[in-house]
């Protein structure tokens, strides 16, 4: 019995080791749940096109040019092409990699009942009317009706940023993307004569 338990333990340990070494770990799902990163040690950063790329490091700083990123604890200097640390140490800017398109089936229905957004996003009114989608869950919709901010922050339109008052943490604000129209199948209207005919047939 003891020998059997040892064999089972060895097989289980081997399978775990195989999983850790050979099978890729799923990375984070981005604020827009349609995108995700392959590597778990990566950070989702928005691209100039409005979708998401992956910075090849955990808890990275997404640069304002939406092309590069820097390690946690540093600041982006896009003009110099460096990531600057308070100690004076400098590293080269990192380029983002492409993210994976993530299949999202659940959707959020907007208040007008005519449009919808992907799961994990927020419906926000647009400047031209109708609704757009903020790529964040429970987002704060900014007054300009073009941008939005994460939950727990406020929009600073003068600086085009999101501010968390408790920590003074600042992040660039997010741009909304178009919602999808809801297409409902029209109901079938029955005429009064047809209803009366069917009731007579049932009673007869």
UniProtKB/TrEMBL annotation:
Record bears the keyword Metal-binding: no
Database matches in PROSITE patterns: GRANULINS
Signal peptide: 1-17
Keywords: Disulfide bond, Secreted, Signal
Origin: domain of life: Eukaryota
Residue span(s) of domain Granulins: 63-76, 142-155
Gene Ontology cellular component list: extracellular region
Subcellular location: Secreted
Entry-linked Gene3D superfamilies: Granulin
Major site of localization recorded for this protein: secreted
Similarity section: Belongs to the granulin family.
Annotated protein name in UniProt: Granulins domain-containing protein
Organism the protein comes from: Mesorhabditis spiculigera
